[in-house]
Amino acid sequence: MRSASILILTTLLWTFSTMPTTAEDRPLLVLDGKAAKLVVDLGGGSIFDFHLKSNDLNPLQWDSWAFSDTPDAEPPMEPRSMGHFLCLDRWGPATEAELDHGMGWHGEATRVWWTLDQKANKKDGYLNAAMSAELPLAGLKVTRSIRMGEKQSIFTVSEAVTNTRHLGRIYNIVQHPTIGPPFLDESTIVDANGTRGFMQERPMPTPEVPEVRWPNALQMDGTKVDLRHLTDDSSPGVVSYIVEEEYGWTTAINASEGLLIGYFWPTADYPWFDAWRHVKDGKPFARGLEFGTTGLHQPGPVLVEKGKIFDQKIFRFIDADETQVFSYANFLMEIPKDFAGVAAIDYTGDTLVIREDGGHYRTLTMDVGTLFPAD
User: Between residues 6 and 282, which one has the greater pLDDT?
Assistant: First the structure.
């Protein structure tokens, strides 16, 4: 059982804390601003709550414990994946030999306790914090820096991955935001700027045949599926698309709740968008708004053999002692009850402009400043 001290910052309306581990509570990092509240679980590093102060609906209400053999039992205190979690050093399965040595699906980042490295440091209207995790099997360390504006419903994350061993290796890093009910229902619409895509269920060595274009996908019998929607059939389960613009983005809206959650990232960091959909008891249960360095849900030997899909790499190489940095932004917005979805997101250098879909000409704007400052 791991414990963490309570840290409270009361200047203005900020609070920042790690909660003690008890039978009823888990150690948390809480950033509580004037516009939004962000909660990170230190048992696995998941961002499992992000909601507006004007609307307490949290889109990231999802817990991997729901897929356990005893989902109705009290979940354990051990680290696990919830809401938006990090896949590192892989996306998908390990090899049989790696499984024998303790490696699991999506790597170790959600299976270890994260350490709080930096207390709240309020500067120029932003709250900054840092946390890190050691991945002993992978031989990697990840350090996460979080910056959230006091009056903004957006935060940015920079994650530095360091190879702590004396030999280089391949790896992948994939962000796995997961939305669930009640934000996720039959009316929820997901948009993204992916282009060429393929279904993960198609057989190797050419899963990219047939090719599809976002938001379209195909079931195994050739039935066309619009991935913007999820009703009572989640087939195909995972479809991956490349992003061919300077920045990638994905959004999910629940217009009846008047709420949008969105992600925005440099494509140089994350060139793939991966859409996961899951139905339970005939109802939408989970949707993964995933983006990362790979679009192939396979172990390392398969990635090396395949090399690229659509001329886009499907793994990264990190040399001995090297550090590689990846960034993204996560934001929430209130939307009109008749909002039709997102056609495009423009970034002017200090403003996000969200353009409505469906032939409408409405735009939503958010002042964000510089999202990804140079290191």
Answer: 282
Cis peptide leading into 20, omega within 30 of 0?
no
Residue 120, C-beta contacts closer than 8 angstroms, at least 6 positions apart: 7, 9, 14, 16, 31, 127, 128, 129
Q: What span, in angstroms and rounded, lies between the C-alpha atoms of 104 and 44?
A: 14
Residues 22-38 have pLDDT tens digits of 435 788 999 999 999 99
Pull the structure tokens for residue 150: 């006091």
CA 329 from centroid of its chain's CA atoms? 10
- Taking domain 15-68+78-341, whether its CATH number is 3.30.1440.10 is answered by no
Q: Are 249 and 345 in contact (CB under 8 A)?
A: yes
Q: What are the residue ranges spanned by the domains of the chain?
A: 15-68+78-341
Other beta carbons within 10 angstroms of residue 132's beta carbon come to: 18
353 Cβ contact list (under 8 Å, min separation 6): 345, 346, 347, 363, 364, 365
CA distances from 53 to 87, 141, 147, 194, 289 (A): 29, 34, 18, 31, 23
Asked if pLDDT for residue 17 goes beyond 90, the answer is no
Q: 236-266: per-residue pLDDT in tens?
A: 999 999 999 999 999 999 999 999 999 999 9
Q: How far is CA 322 from CA 44, 145, 319, in A?
A: 23, 18, 5
pLDDT of residue 16: 38
Using CA atoms, how far apart are residues 50 and 103, in angstroms rounded to an integer?
Answer: 29
DSSP letters along 297-339, please? -S-HHHHHHH-EETTEES-EEE-TT-EEEEEEEEEEEE--TT-
CA distances from 176 to 103, 255, 342 (A): 18, 23, 20
Q: Alpha-carbon distance 155 to 176, whole Å?
A: 16
Q: What is the CA radius of gyration of the chain?
A: 20
CA distances from 121 to 12, 51, 130, 343 (A): 13, 22, 10, 36
How many beta carbons lie within 10 A of that of residue 104, not counting itself? Answer: 14
